[in-house]
Amino acid sequence: MSFPESLHAAYDVIVIGAGPAGLAAAATTAEAGLRTLLVDENSAPGGQIYRAITTSPLKNSSILGKDYEAGNDLVHTFEKSGADRLAGCTVWSLDRERVVGLSCGGEARLIKAERVIIATGAMERPFPIPGWTLPGVMTIGAGQTLLKSSGLIPSGRLALAGQGPLLWLYAAQILRAGGHIAAIFDTTPLANYISAALHLPGFIFSPYWTKGLGLIREVKRAVKIVTGVTRLEAQGKNKLQTLVWEAGSRTGSIDLDVLMLHQGVVPHVNLAMAAGIKHEWDAIQLCFRPVLDESGNSSIKGIMIAGDGAGIGGAESAAERGRLAAIDTVANLRPDALAQIPSRDNVRNRLAQTMRGRAFLDHLYRPSKVFRIPQDASTIVCRCEEITAGEIRASIAIGATGPNQLKAYRRTGMGPCQGRLCSLTVTELMADERGKSPEEIGYYRLRSPVKPISLAELASIPQDETAIKAVVRG
Amino acid sequence: MFKRATNHQEPAVQITVDGLPVTARRGDTVSAAILTAGCVEPYRYTAVNGTPRAPYCMMGVCFDCLVTIDGIGNRQGCLIPVSDGMVITRQNGKREIES
To answer: CB 3.0-4.6 Å disulfide test: which of A48, A67, A188, A341 passes with A163?
Structure first.
């Protein structure tokens, strides 16, 4: 796959990410006649939530469920809209002038847009327990990706640990697909049930209520559940062999081949932060999120953020937030076309409906401190550079003040993942150790390229005569 | 580590992993194919301490799925679909300078 001949040199709108927010945003701007390009890293549209919606070998919706099928409508609407799409294409940079650096099939291009809508969605919150780097330990999202795109289920003994709606959904899907789950270790702090109860009324009137209870019942009939889990440790020589657990005063261990972890999702901020967009700490969702206006405009003119990358709201709200960003874009670039697309008020109303029940979920599934800030000194925090919590605490003791200083001490966040899997842990650990707020401690200073790009790819960017003259001698 | 849940209708795709023939299915990513093949464990060894690793996130975030594909190193195996004749080499620890 490389860049098609039909690719334009500039676009009215570039949308980054083909999940629900990106598909809805790109379809809406294209319907209004704006020249739109949707770029996505994966080979098929859908993002994570609707991953492989057009290609999944699980044709029968009885395994993945009806909610997954909603992705079909988004893809069909997008395909009819006339927007261009680049699949299997990586965005490695975005600057204040809205120039997007793309890499596709070993070549790179810089393409400018009047508007950029970032729809890079969410990633799973780091779950740093002792032994989480052993082969055999992976995220529940990873397991679900393998199920959706390749129809794969774990072989051998499987346990799930953690909390959140995805845990129960994946457990049900595995059971429906003929898989077996030895046990589920529920880490939801018991105190959360009390703080969440205040938000129960909104939740009862949301669709999550019946769906969620149904899923949990379906899973509990078939799987042993350990609740109130307070410590997890994966053990094994060269791969996972045993999970040791504590739940208050109860303890136990279980032999396993696969352990899947999950404690919610957080905005995937790397591209937005590298572009220089202002972010703030969200004390409820315990993550950094971009500072945005109601439509999704960021602190940089012409760059918007929609979907879970703007703050976690779920798939349905992501699509509505994609449409809101698109409507604002059309209002600015082609106001006479506003009549052809859904009205802002309608979309706002639907968005409000999809957000009902969210506060309950945010409070119920707020992860416990012991699973966010590793207590064991030997727990790896930075998976790439293999730096432990103990080593980070030792660096703080001799003067490291924040994540960026810590790089000079330990190289944390400087490996291939560029801090994606350690940044929240490092920020929270340093805040806790130094008695400051995560906002004061801050985040890694991220820079482009946000994804690896080879020199050969960079050299393939077409240059004009002025650029060549600037560097060629003689 | 994984097996197929359904009777697959998707056509087979032939690849090699460290020279061993592996039959994948259309729609598999390189990482999915290796995790299902079972004949190649561990998935890789890290460049820092040489410890065994396998893909953790499967969505392009963790970079624990890095492999060499058709001679190009450090590719994210979880994002790249298999294609017939693909030659995959595991990355075992840090690279050495060849004399």
So the answer is: A188
Residue from A55, A146, A166, A270 to probe the interface with B (highest B Cβ count within 10 Å)? A146
Question: What predicted TM-score, i.e. pTM, was given to this entire model?
Answer: 0.96
Q: Do B56 and A152 touch (CB under 8 A)?
A: no
Q: Is B25 within 8 Å of A150 when comparing Cβ atoms?
A: yes
What distance in Å separates the CA atoms of residue B74 and residue A454, rounded to the nearest whole number? 10
Establish if A105 touches chain B: CB-CB under 8 angstroms: no
Contact B62 A133 (CB under 8 A): no
- Regarding an ipTM greater than 0.95, the answer is yes
Chain A / chain B CB contacts < 8 angstroms: 138
CATH number of B12-90: 3.10.20.440
Q: Which of residues 210-269 of A touch B (CB under 8 A)?
A: 238-239, 257-258, 268
Q: Are B52 and A135 in contact (CB < 8 Å)?
A: yes
| Secondary structure of chain A as H, E, C letters | CCCCCCCCCEEEEEEECCCHHHHHHHHHHHHCCCCEEEECCCCCCCCCCCCCCCCCCCCCHHHHCHHHHHHHHHHHHHHHCCCEEECCCEEEEECCCCEEEEEECCEEEEEEEEEEEECCCEEECCCCCCCCCCCCEEEHHHHHHHHHHHCEEECCCEEEEEECHHHHHHHHHHHHCCCCCCEEEECCCCCHHHHHHCCHHHHHCCCHHHHHHHHHHHHHCCCCEECCCCEEEEECCCCCCEEEEEECCEEEEEECCEEEEEECEEECCHHHHHCCCCEEEECCCCEEEECCCCCCECCCCCEEECHHHHCCCCHHHHHHHHHHHHHHHHHHHCHHHHHHCCCHHHHHHHHHHHCCCHHHHHHHCCCCHHHHCCCCCCCEEECCCCEEHHHHHHHHHCCCCCHHHHHHHHCCCCCCCCCCCCHHHHHHHHHHHHCCCHHHHCCCCCCCCCCCCCHHHHHCCCCCHHHHHHHCCC
Contact criterion met (CB < 8 Å) for B1 and A137? no
The gap between the terminal CA atoms of chain A, to the nearest Å, is 37
A434: distance to nearest CA of chain B, Å? 27
Task: Tell me if B62 and A57 make a contact (CB, 8 A cut-off).
Answer: no
Q: Give the CA diameter of chain B.
A: 49
Query: Strand A183-186 relative to strand A265-267: parallel, antiparallel, unpaired?
Result: unpaired
Q: For A148-194, write each residue's pLDDT tens digit.
A: 999 999 999 999 999 999 999 999 999 999 999 999 999 999 999 99
Per-domain boundaries in chain B: 12-90
Neighbours of A88 (CB within 10 A): 18
Give yes or no for A7 touching B (CB within 8 A): no
